[in-house]
Design brief:
It is found in: Cell membrane. Pathway: Phospholipid metabolism; phosphatidylethanolamine biosynthesis; phosphatidylethanolamine from CDP-diacylglycerol: step 2/2; Lipid metabolism. Its EC number is 4.1.1.65. Keywords: Cell membrane, Decarboxylase, Lipid biosynthesis, Lipid metabolism, Lyase, Membrane, Phospholipid biosynthesis, Phospholipid metabolism, Pyruvate, Zymogen. With about 260 residues, the chain is of the alpha+beta class. Helix content is about 20%, strand content about 30%. The strands form four sheets. It has an eight-stranded antiparallel sheet with strand order 11-7-8-9-13-5-2-15. Strand 3 and strand 4 form a beta hairpin.
């Protein structure tokens, strides 16, 4: 019953017209009056912002804010895979032999997530990370490792929420929501950065201009809270033993160590 109600609510609120109104409002100066209350309510750290709170002219500017130089420490050790975002570790683990994993009682297919059996096959028995960003988190996305951009593509349309309720009651939101995928290659191994849109707000923008990325380099941003799924090929990394589902994570924190000797 809860699932039926939840999905019906998303259908009603996920109409393109509703989405358009929400996007227009958050980008308009009419939303400026909510900037300070929002920052206070969510305890956003104003000291690390690139510019003072009073200079933000809309909620969109606050959501997509940049940070001061040095606000996030990125290890120079190229053997470390780092978190590409600030957020919370929802889950991580091994991808099954048939390219699937389970979250909140739902089964996810990598083939469905990436839109191709051929693209999914390379991640069989690899590692996945699900990193959730709430509306209060820093929304810019950074490269989890240095490497070459092999491919980038978009999939999906309407978006369910990607918070815990969304993962439990939504219709496989991580593999059916609007998503923008960037695939990197490092030492002949692939890393997929799957950026998943949130309810009503499918705006995911890329900011990179080159075909190669440095570790920690900005690659894009969400215009609202959302989720990043990392997919890593088998025998590529050793997951950091200190990681736990539910823990907070920041850009630059170590997720694992590469097994190669580059």
């Amino acid at each position: 019953m809860i699932k039926i109600f939840f999905r019906s609510f998303v259908e009603l609120t996920g109409h393109p017209f509703s989405s358009m109104l929400l996007k227009k409002y958050t980008k308009s100066r009419w939303s400026k009056g909510l900037v300070k209350p929002f920052a206070r309510a969510y305890n956003i750290n104003e000291q690390e912002m690139e510019k003072p709170l009073q200079e933000f002219l809309s909620l969109h500017e606050l959501f997509t804010r940049k940070l001061k130089e040095g606000a996030r420490l990125v290890s120079q050790d190229e053997q470390e895979l780092i978190s590409p975002v600030d957020g919370k570790i929802e889950l991580f683990g091994e991808i099954t032999n048939d390219c699937r994993f389970h979250v909140k009682g739902q089964e996810y297919s990598i083939e469905e997530m990436l839109g191709s059996k051929e693209k999914a096959k390379k991640y069989e028995r690899g590692v996945f990370f699900i990193l959730y960003l709430s509306p209060s988190h820093y929304h810019r996305i950074h490269s989890p490792a240095g490497g070459m951009i092999k491919n980038s593509w978009k999939l999906g349309g309407k978006s369910f929420p990607v918070n815990r309720l969304g993962l439990k009651y939504g219709e496989r939101p991580l593999s059916t929501n609007f998503r923008l995928i960037t695939e990197l290659e490092r030492s002949s191994k692939s890393i997929a950065v799957v950026k998943v849109g949130a309810l009503n707000v499918n705006s995911i923008c890329t900011t990179y201009t080159e075909t190669s990325l440095k570790k920690g380099e900005e690659i894009g941003y969400f215009s609202f809270g959302s989720t990043v799924v990392l997919l890593i090929e088998k025998d590529t990394i050793q997951v950091n033993n200190g990681l736990q589902p539910g823990q907070d994570i920041r850009v630059g924190n170590c997720l694992g160590t590469f097994l190669d000797e580059d």
